[in-house]
Amino acid sequence: MSTAEFDQSVETLEPSMSGRSPALPIQLTARDISVWFGKRKVLEGVNIDFPKNTVTALIGPSGCGKSTFIRTLNRLHELIPGAALAGEVLYEGKDIYSPDIDPTHIRLNIGMVFQKPNPFPSMSIRGNVLSGLKLSGMKRSNHDDIVEETLTAAGLWNEVKDRLGAHAGELSGGQAQRLVIARALAVQPHVLLMDEPCSALDPASTLKIEETIRELSKDITVIIVTHNMQQAVRVSDYTAFFLAAENEPGHVVEQGPTTDIFSNPRDQRTLDYVNGRFG
Amino acid sequence: MTVTDPVFRDLHSAATSHRGDRIFNRTVTALAFTALLVLAGISIFLGAQAVPVLAELGPSYLTTTAWDLTSTPPDVGIWGMLYGSVLLAVIGLLIAVPAGLLLAVFMVFMAPPKISKALTSLVDLMAAIPSVIIGLWAFYVLTGPAVEWQQLLNEYLGWIPIFQNTSGNFLGTPFIAGFVLAIMMIPIITSISREVLSHTPPELINASEALGCSLWTMLRYVALPYGRGGIVGGIMLGLGRALGETIAIFFVLKIVFEVNWYNIIESGGGSVASLIVSKFGEANAGFETQLLLAAGFFLFLLTLIVNVIANLIVSRTGRMQR
Prior knowledge:
The structure holds two protein chains of two kinds. Chain A is of the alpha/beta class. Chain A has eleven helices and ten strands. In chain A, helix 4 runs parallel beside helix 7 and helix 5 (143-153) crosses helix 7 (173-186). Chain B has two domains: 12-68; 80-321, MetI-like (MetI-like fold, Orthogonal Bundle).
């Protein structure tokens, strides 16, 4: 990275801090994140702070690097062949990419929910909730309580409490997605990343998941990628708008409190996007 | 109110009314039945040979282990050979299953794409080596080192009954024959396991990665359970080859007419297929040939049973996944 680039990124850091309540401690910080796949640069100089116990929505048209960005926040990005990264991600002030950090530990603290509901089909509902403990070798006692707590938090408990032994494959798409949220919660993460969690779901299920997100944000920090403007307005406290010009890496055009981004954006492109004029 | 029976429309002839389709359908149906006919033909031919043998010797043909045609009545039985075939296959499986699975895991989840591709072609090439070549190679090249391995096994693990050897002769042992079978099974098991594992849904791999699990736990709880049906199928296909393998075993196994129950590094063992090939050349055209064909019938039956069991396992594990 050249010095000029670095200076520029320091500048862009400033507006991202403004507009946020200074009282909220910052849980996760992306500092000057750039991403490459092979020789192709797909993301440039992203700086975002994620305050503790808030919901931040990442919006923008397809192919602007939102999903790529979210995967850098819990070190899933590095598992893709040919992936490269510059910059820092600070989790509670410490760089998650520093050599003395165990990526497994990071992924347990920063959980993730994907676009397509992906419960383990060969496991029961209960088995799925507890699978994170099993897969990571994490020890927690009182499995029955964990199952009830997390399924309740994910808004699924009442629908499945009588058939916890049933195969996860029997659930509908919306239920499966809420099961996956419960599974992510069972390992007690402090941050939950959600990559378009509702894009494969019907409106009723979407509403339930949104309620769940609001509820979760009392205790954990949520970062959600969404293509749905109304959803961003409904669930998020802060919004970052990503954009990529043709054959150029994506970057953050504007970020701040969700109300500002949607009602009073500073950039013309943001205004056009949130009003549905492109994307 | 009168109830009239519904008039059913002809839905099927319409679908095949095109002349080309009709010809194609009939050809394919005929070919499909050819497979059944061949299977039935083999069963009937071998079964017909087995009938006079069983009539003459009774069930003792299956329960004794001997090949003495000079005594009256002839003292002949293939129990040791049938048991030997299974024993060799089990030894082969114990070596080939872990080796093949690990190779497949390496190719799918660990190797760089180029190496993985190269290995895929190599493994397929390995499957195409004729068994007579493997047999010759084993006879001239493998037996030397294999004798030394067996001596080591005997020296350090000789207190385990299966590694006992009292004769001091380490040639022509079930271990060497089983090892040769493993070499022939590994490409089959690897190839099928690789195919199955490479179809592990990426979203499930994603899920396990996001839950902070290692490659090992991902394999154990996600990839292997997902591919279980296919992998078992691959193993059974390898087993089918092992049970029927003839000429490679013929080169490396000393056939003896006594049951070698478990001394796998002791010289001498049994194999139905190798028995047939070793006796067939000098067999008289009458009863002895019939004896060998009857042996073939029971080998055929054995492989059939193994295949049926394999299918049951595959369909059962397949159902459990859904």
